[in-house]
Design a protein that fits this description.
Blueprint (H helix, E strand, L loop, with lengths): L1 E2 L2 E6 L4 E9 L10 H11 L20 E5 L6 E5 L8 E2 L2
Parallel strand pairs: 1-6
Antiparallel strand pairs: 2-3, 3-4, 4-5
Amino acid sequence: MKMPKTKKLYCKKCNSHTEQKLKLFKSGQARAMAIGTRRNVRKHKKGFGGKAKFVIKVKKQTKKPAFVAECPTCKSKRYYVIPKRMKKVDMGA
């Protein structure tokens, strides 16, 4: 889907609609001390427990794209999610 780089969205801080910049959301680095990471290390990587089997889980082929919208006046950022699944998103259409 082709997506514009700017879109007129509501800003809670300014209490008005402004032309906001959109950029594709990228998740940060995973935390090493999160419970999921610790559980994975304990089950699959630590000690002499042999090789643990991974449960085969069929993943969905597409994702709902998430964007970060930035207000030009107050510089506040918020998520903007399109509630439809799509394989590819092109910015700057």
